[in-house]
Here is the input.
Amino acid sequence: MQKGERAESAAAEVVKGTQWPLLGGTLVGILAFSAIGLSPTDMGEYAGSLFWVIMYSMLLSWLFAVTLTPLLCVTLLKVKVRGADEPEKPSGILVRYRALLNLALRRRLISGGIMLALLASAIIGFGWVQPGFMPESARPQFVVDMYLPQGSDIKETAAELAKMSEYVQGREGVTHVSSFVGQGGLRFMLTYSPEDPNSSYGQLLIDVDDPKIIADLVEDLQAELSERHPLAAIKAWKFMLGRGGGKKIEAAFSGPDPAVLRDLAEQAKIIMAEDGGAIAIQDDWRDKTPVLRPVVDEVAARRAGVDITQISQAINRAFTGERVGVYRESDKLIPIIARAPESERGLAQDIDNVQVYSPTYG
Here is the structure.
């Protein structure tokens, strides 16, 4: 434009020469973040939106660079035309950049050697970078999960967890231990996923005075508690930033036959157990437990004036109990449960003595 060329033609010439290289650089920048957006790990779940935001932003940036920017330049830039004999006066930055570029071109071997040395240093330096997208949490707490054999009574779980809590409380650096029996605690942070209700499950939430000792405590308690409680599957773990819940390694099987799925799960657990570092190996179906399935003579039941629903309610009332009221103590509401005495519900054959009320005969 300083040489007298029209602004429109100058802008069109610049766009024509740079639009495709700019698009190529934009696509390279987008692909650099594709590992985040397409990752199936917690990195992709936690920061996947970063990839899509960058992709849309960079594509719009390229579009504006080849359309809106030239239009603004044509509209706003007012350049004084330089005479044919008037010498060019480059800026100080351009002068220094031109000198550096000329030096690099004259010393090609040295420049190339410096670039290769920097590349090698970067490759070697990456070996010192700790793997993992999400850093460890500095929260002064960690967790111990305990899984007794499936079907264990909740009283047995509570007793076992109390012994474990007492032992952990005596460790140096531990300031407080909270116990949760039958399920996890309330979700007090985003990355904590409470365990579903299960009478054989217990959890310890352990507070320490210094987060730096958590790594050693987790490793020591994992070995010590597993040895002291051989019937329980123990898993000691610390909080991480990012998503919560789940195991480090999981295998999923799907199909129509439960027996085949359980067999595949057992094979997978055997393979995992061969690794000495694997802990708390289990499947989400857990162990098989005995189940009573009463067979009802529907003809006789109809003659007695009862149906399957009433029989089910009577069995549940006798063994599990039925809520019949609420007892208020200070600010607590304690449910009142009515069920058969323990001597009448402790054995499987006690189901034969369950009384079913009939609206017809009483």
Q: What stands out?
A: The chain is about 45% helix and 10% strand. The two ends are 106 Å apart (CA to CA).
